Amino acid sequence: MTDDPWEPFLSTVRTVFAFLVCAVIVLAALALVVGLLLLVRIHLRRIHEVLYLGDHAGVGSPGPEDFAWLGYHGGPVWWDLAEVYRRVRLDTGLFVVFLYPFLAVQAVVAAAHLALAWAGVVVSRLVDAALLAARRIRMVCPNCFEAMSYPSYVCDGCGRTHRDVRPGMWGVFRRHCVCDRALPTLLLLGSADLDTRCPHCDHALEHRPGEAREFVLPLFGAAGAGKTRLAHGLYLSLEHGAELHPETLSVELMGEETERRLRESRTVLSPRHRVAPTPPGRRAHGATLRVAAGRRTLLVQMYDTAGEWFNTHERTEELSYLGRATTFLLVLDPLAVPAVWEALDAEEQRRLAGDRSGARDPERAYLQVRDQVQRQYRTLGAAPGKGRLAVVVTRGDLLAGTSVDPRGTPPERWLDEVVGAANLLRAARVDFGSVEVFVTSAVTGPSGAPDPSLTTLSRWVLARDAGALGATLREPCDPLSDAGEERVPVSAGTGGPS
Amino acid sequence: MSSPQLYYTSCERGLSGCTGYQFNAATPGVDTRVLREVERFTVYEPPRALPPDEVHRHPINLCYSPDLGGAPVLSRVVSSGDDPSGRPGNYFAHSLVLDEGSETLPAELWGASFWTDRPVTDPRLPGITLPPGPLDRRRTSAWLRDRAEETIRGLLVSVDAAIEGGAPVLLLADDEATAHWVAALSHLLPPPLARRMSFATYSGNPEETLVHVMGVPPGTDTRGLRGRFVVFDPDRPVSIAPPPVHTASSAHRSFTGAESAPLHEALDTFEEGPIPEACPETLTLVSLLVHAGVEGTPTLWAASLPYSSGREGPLSEWRPLSAAAFLADGSFPAADPDLRAVRAWLPDAVAWLAPGQSRHLLHRLLDADPDTPHDDDLARLREVAHRAGDPEATERLEGLILRRALDGIAAGASAPAMVPMRSAWAKEEAGARIGALLEGGLGIVPTPDRAVELLRWAGSGGVPLPRSALERYGAGPVAHRISASPPEAEPDRYLTELLAAHSPIRRGVAHGLAVLPRRNLARLAAGPTGALMAKDREPATALLRELRMLELREDDPPELLRAVMDSRREARPWAPPRLADHDLDRELLLRVWGPAPGPETVTAALSLVDGRTRIAPDVGDWCARILARVPPRGLEEEWHHALTLVGRLMLRLPESCRGLVEEWAPVGAKVAALRRAHGEEGARLLVSLAALLRGCRPVVETVALRRVCDRVLDWDHRLCARVMADCPSKVFDSYCEEVEERLGPIERAHGRSVPPLEADLAVRVFLTALRLGAEPGTSGEPGVKGARVGRPRGGEGGERSAERGRTLLDEVMGPSTLTWSRREAASVRKAFDRLPEGQVFESWARGFRDRHGQGGLFGRFRKGARRA
Fold first, then answer.
1. pLDDT tier for residue A370 given thresholds of 50, 70 and 90
2. Given B22, B41, B85, which is nearest A308 (Cβ)?
3. Does the structure show a pLDDT above 60 at B781?
C-alpha cells in the first residue's frame, strides 16, 4: 500500500465536488418544481378569472337579434380556452411550453364537455322527435293553418318570443333568455307550460300544442246547411259524455276564442233557437277542444267556416287546413234539396219553410273542397284516398214524421233514394277512402242532453284517430223519452267506424 | 266626383250567384280586392246584451278605413234581422269607395240621408256624389261644448299614437256619441291625419276590428282589453285644471314644454287606460287644437298646409307647421316654443318649401329672436338661407354665427368647428368683432389662450384679422405679460404662438416693450422672448433684434456691426420705436468693441460705411480717441490705415484729430519713402525724417519711428551701425525697442504658435553692436568696453557709438538671449558658423548667461522660454 501524500487532498476535493454536484441537482430540481408550481398557479388563476369570474370581454352579450345567451358549448368554451391560453402566454412568455400539458388537459376537458353537450343535444332532439312521431303528434296553427315543426315560446320573464327553443347551441336542457330567465328546451322538459305562439303568424296558441295529438276536423257545406249548429252539437255530445263519465272522459275548451264560440252550445242547440250565420268576413279559425280519456288526449280542431267560402275556388284555396285533415264532415241541409222539398206535402212545406236554407246544390261545396283537398294532398305528398268523409244530413229532427222521414231507412239508402245524392256518394267513395252517411239532429232534449245522433257522429269522428276516446262515449240514448219535444231526433248512421 | 257604392248583406240574389252573404249590388268597376276587404271590414256582430230580434236597438257602425284594397272606404253597417232563410244576425253594409280628394271628412257623414239598409234587385249601383255631411263643425262644436277638455286632449294624444302604430282607442260610448267623438277628432286633427284615422262607431268584437278608434256600448266589460287598448269612458267625470293659456293672442298662443309636463301628468291620471307617452311637441299642439276648437282649426290648418310636405305623420310633425304659419302671419309676437319648433323644422322643410316661403320664415325668425338660437340652429338656418337663395339672410346668419362663436371663445368656451363662410361682409364683421374682443369688448380682455383660440378659429375660416387691434393687443396685454415675467423665463405656449404666428402682435409687443429701460429690454431680447423675434423681418422689432445681437455677440465684431447697421437701415423707413437715429454711432461702436479698441476697429468699422450709411457725429470723436493713442506695437499699419480712412471719409473730427491727420500727412509720406529706399538713401531719409519729427505729436513720432526701425533692422549691419551711431537718441531707442520686440520675449497668446527666432536678425544686431563699438566683455565683467569690430570711431562720437553698442548688447540683446531656448540659441550659433564673429558671440553669450542667467547643475539644460 502506497502512501500518496495527495490522497487526502484529492479525497477532500472529490467530496466537495460531489457535494456541489448534488447541491446543484437539488437546487435545480427545487427550482424546477417551484417554477412549475408557479406556472400551474398562474394557469389556475387565469382559469379562475376567465371561467369562474367571467372576466372575458370576448364573450359579449347577445346582439339585438338574439334572444338567448349562447350555451357554454355553443362557442364560449373555445373562446375561454383561447383566452386562458392568451393570458398564460402573456404571463409566462416562453415558459408557456411547460404549461402545454396542462393546457392540453384543459382542452381535453373542454372537448369532453363539448362532446357531452352536443351528444345531449342530439339525443334529446332525437328522443323528442321520436316521441312526437310515435304519438303521431303534428302541430297545426288554428289561425294560419300552417304546420309547425315546433312552437315558439314566450319568455315568462321578459315577454320575448323564442322562435325555436329546441336543444342547440343556445342550450341543451335549458336555454337562458337575455333576461336571464331559464327556459326548458323541449316539450319533454316542460316547455308547454310557457306561453306558446305560432312561429309563422305569431298567434297565441292556447291549446298547449305538442302535448297531445292534434286532430283537424273541417266542417264544410253550403251556407245555412247547419255547420255551426253541428259544431256545437259535436262539442255538446262530447261534453255530455264527459258529464256522464267524468272519471274517464274530459272535454275542455282551449283558448278564449273557442270559449267565446262554443260556451253557449247548450243554448244554441235548444230546439227553438236559430243560429246566427257565420259571417264570411271573419277569417276561419279552428275551435280547439281538448278531449282526454285516461292518459289518452286528443286536441280536436274544428273548423266551422262560413258556407260562402266554399262557393268559389279562390276562397276555398285559402283554407289550407283542409290539407292537414283526414276526416271531413260534409254538412247537408236536406230541406234545401229540391227533391226532398218537393217530396213534402204542402202542410209540411209550410211548417218547415222557415228552416229551409237557400243553398240548393250541396254538391257545389263538396266539389270545391274535394278539389282543394286533392291539391293540398298532392302538395304535401300525402297519399290520396287516405281520408274519410262523413256526409252529415242535418235537421233530422225536422224530417221525423214527415213523408220523407229517414227513420227506418239506412241513411245511405235514404240519401240515395230520397235526396238523390247517388252521384255525390259515388264520387265521394272514389275521392275518399271511406264514406259514411249520418242523419243528425243538432238539438238537445229537455234534460239538456244532445241528440244521440250527435254522439254517434262523434264516435265515428274519433274512431280512427282516437278510438278509445270514442268508445268511452255512451251508446246513444233515446231522447224521445224526453217528453214535450217538437223536434223528432233521429238516431241514424250507417254504422260504426268503417 | 261620384263615389262607387257597395251593398253587402245575406241575400238570395247578389253578385255571387249563391244564397248567403254577398254583395247584393255594387257600382261596376270596383276592384275585387276592395270587395274582399270590405266584406272583412264590415262584419257586424250585434251586442250580446240585446235580443237579436230588436234590430232597431242595435247600434249603427259607421266605419272607415283609409286603405281597403288600396282605396279609402266608408261603410255604414246596420243590423237587419233575419236573413232570407230566417236566421237571425243578418246585417246590411252600405259602403262608399271614397275619392281621396274629397273635402268631406268621413265622420261627417254620420246620419247622412243617402245611407240605405235595404238590398236591391238591380245589382248595378250608380256612383254617388257626396253631399256635405250632417255632422259638420258647427254641430260637433255644439256637441263638444259640455265635454271635458281633458278627455279631448287624451283622445287626441291616444289617437295620434294609435295612427302611428300604438294601441287602438276604445270608447265606451254608444254609436252616436262615438260618431260625435270621431267627428270631433277628425275636425281637430290635420285633414291628412284625419283621413288616416280609421274608426268604427260600434264594434261587437274589438279584437277583430282593425281600426284606430272604435266604440263599444257602455257597460261593456273591457277588463280583458285594457292591456291592448286605450280605453276611454267619456262620461266618467274628471276634474283636471286646464293648462295655462296665454291670453293676449289666445287663439294662436302656443304652450311651452314646461307647461306641457303637467298636462301630461294630468293625462296619465284621469283615464282608465294608460295614455301613450307623447312628446312635448305633441302635447303643445294638442293644447293648441283644444284651445282653437273645432271651428278654429280650419283656419289653423289652412294656414299650415302651405308649409306641408305631404309626408307629415304624427301630430308632433304638424307642430312646426302651425308654428310656421303663426310666425309667418306675424300678427302677434311669436313665443319661444314656436320659434324653436320652426328653427328645428325649417332646415328640412326648405327642401319642399317655395324659396319665398323659406326666405320669409327665415327673416321672421331672425327678426323675432336673433340671440336665443343655438349655434347648431344658426348653422342650419344659414344652410337654409343659402338653399333659399337669400344672400341677405346668409350674411346676417354668418355674422351671427361668427359673432356667437367668437364671443364664446373669448368667454372661455372651446372653439366650435368652423363652417365655411360665403359672405365677405360677415367675415369683415367677424374681423371687427375679433378686434373688439381683443380690446375687451366683453368687459374683459381675453387672455393669451383665448386670443390664440380666437385667432386660430378665425384663421381657419379665412376671417381677415384686424392688424391694428392685434397691434394694440400685442402692445397691451401681451407686452405687459412679457415684461412682468423674468427675462429668462420661457413664455407660455400661447404667448409663443401669438408671437410666432402674428406679426402685428409682434409689432405691438415691440412698441409695448419699448418703454422698458434699455438694460431690461436688452435682457429680454437676449432671452427666450427675444429668440421668437430673432428671425423676424418685422421693422418694429429691429430694436429687440439689435439688442439681442449685441447681447449675445454670436458673430465677430465686424459682422455684428454689419448686422446691426443693416437692421437699423432696413427698419428706419418704418420708424420703429427707440431705433437709433444713425446706423453707426459711438454707442454702438462701444458696444461692439468695448471701451478700449485698437486702430484696427476704426478700419473695420469705417470699412462698413458706404454712401447710404447714416453716421453719427460722435463716431469721429470715437475715432479720434483711438487714433490719438499710441497704437500697440504691430498695429502701426492699422493706425496708418485708420487715419487714412478717417481722412478720406471726411468724418466730423475734433480739432485735435484734424491736426493729427495734417501732421501725419508729410511724416507718412516720408516714412513710406524711407521704407521703399535702400542703402545710403535710406540713411539720408532717416536723418531728414528725424528732423521732421521734431515737434510732432508723440503718437506720430512713435508710429513713424516704429515703422522706420522695423525697416532699418533689415539693413546691412554696417550701414545700420553707421546710422545708429549718429542718429538722435529717439531713433536709437526706437531701434532698440524694435530689436527687443523681435528678439526678446514675446507674449504667448493662447493657441498661437511662437514665431521662430530670426537668427539672421540676431546676427545682424550683434554685428551692429560690435560695429557701434561694443566690445564683448570677458567673463566676470559686464560688456567689454572698447572692443571694436570694423571701423573704430574716435572722439565724442565714438564714445556715444560705443555706448550705444554696449546698450544694444547688454540691455537689449543680452536679456533677449536669456529667453531663448536651446534650439533657438543653437540656430543663432549656426548662423554664426560662417562668420568669424561666431566665437565672439559664443563667449559673449556664455559670459552674459553666466552672469545673469540661472546657474547650477541644470543651468545648461534650462530651456529658454522667450516668455515675458
1. very high
2. B22
3. no
Please judge whether A276 and B21 are an interchain contact, meaning their C-beta atoms are less than 8 angstroms apart: no
All three cell numbers of A427? 264520387
A319 and A428 part of one domain: yes
Is there a contact between B724 and B730 (Cβ–Cβ < 8 Å)? Answer: no
For residue A237, tell me if it sits in a domain: yes
Residues A149, A239, single domain; the answer is: no
Q: State the number of CA atoms in the 13 A half-sphere of B687 facing the CB.
A: 9
CB contact under 8 A, A276 and B82: no
B207: left (phi over 0), alpha (psi -120 to 50) or beta: alpha
Helix (H, G, I), strand (E, B) or coil at A292: strand
Range of A367's domain?
212-481
For residues A457 and A314, membership in a common domain is answered with: yes
Q: Is residue A498 part of a domain?
A: no
Same domain for A343 and A361? yes
Backbone angles phi, psi at B347, to 5 degrees: -55, -35
CB-CB under 8 Å, A224 with B87: yes
For residue range B113-158, list pLDDT tens digits in order. 999 999 998 999 999 988 888 999 999 999 988 888 888 888 999 9
Angle at B594 between CA B591 and CA B599, to 5 degrees: 115
Interface A-B: count of C-beta contacts within 8 A:
77
Q: Residue B199's Cα: distance from chain center in Å? A: 62
Domain limit, last residue, from A210, A242, A269: A210
Same domain, A197 and A218: no
In a domain, A349, yes or no: yes
Q: What is the percent of chain B with per-residue pLDDT over 90, rounded to a whole number?
A: 16
Residues of B with CB under 8 A from a CB of A: 10, 12, 16-22, 39-45, 52, 82-91, 208, 224
Q: Which residue has the cell 429690454?
A: B521
CA distance B48 to chain A (A): 11
Q: Are B75 and B211 in contact (CB under 8 A)?
A: no
Q: What is the CATH number of the domain that holds A434?
A: 3.40.50.300
Are residues A203 and A240 located together in one domain of the fold? no
Q: Last residue of some domain: A180, A210, A240?
A: A210
Q: What is the dihedral of CA B324, B329, B332, B334, to 10 degrees?
A: 20
For the domain made up of B145-292, give the CATH fold.
Rossmann fold (3.40.50)
pLDDT of B188 reads 94
Pick from B16, B41, B87: CB nearest A277: B87
Residues of B in Cβ contact (< 8 Å) with A279 = 21, 43-45, 91
Contact call for A274 and B86, based on CB within 8 A: yes
Q: How many CB atoms lie within 10 A of CB B418?
A: 17
Same domain, A130 and A184: yes
Tens of pLDDT, residues B660-681: 888 888 888 888 888 888 888 8
Residues of A in contact with B40 (CB under 8 A): 281-283
- Determine, for residues A277 and B90 on separate chains, whether the beta-carbon distance falls below 8 Å: yes
- Residue A391 within a domain: yes
Read off the C-alpha cell for A490. Answer: 233521429
Query: Quick check: B39 pLDDT over 90?
Result: yes
Which ipTM score applies to this complex?
Answer: 0.79
Chain B: closest CA distance from residue A333 (Å)? 12
Question: What's the total number of domains in chain A?
Answer: 2
Mean pLDDT of chain B: 83
- The DSSP line for B521-547 is HHHHHHSHHHHHTTT---GGGHHHHHH
**Does A341 lie in the same domain as A453?**
yes
Nearest neighbour of A276 by CB, restricted to B17, B18, B89: B89
CA dist., res. A442 & res. B562, Å (int):
130
State pLDDT tens for residues B465-492: 888 889 899 888 888 888 888 888 888 8
**CB-based contacts of A138, cutoff 8 Å, min separation 6:** A147, A213, A214, A324
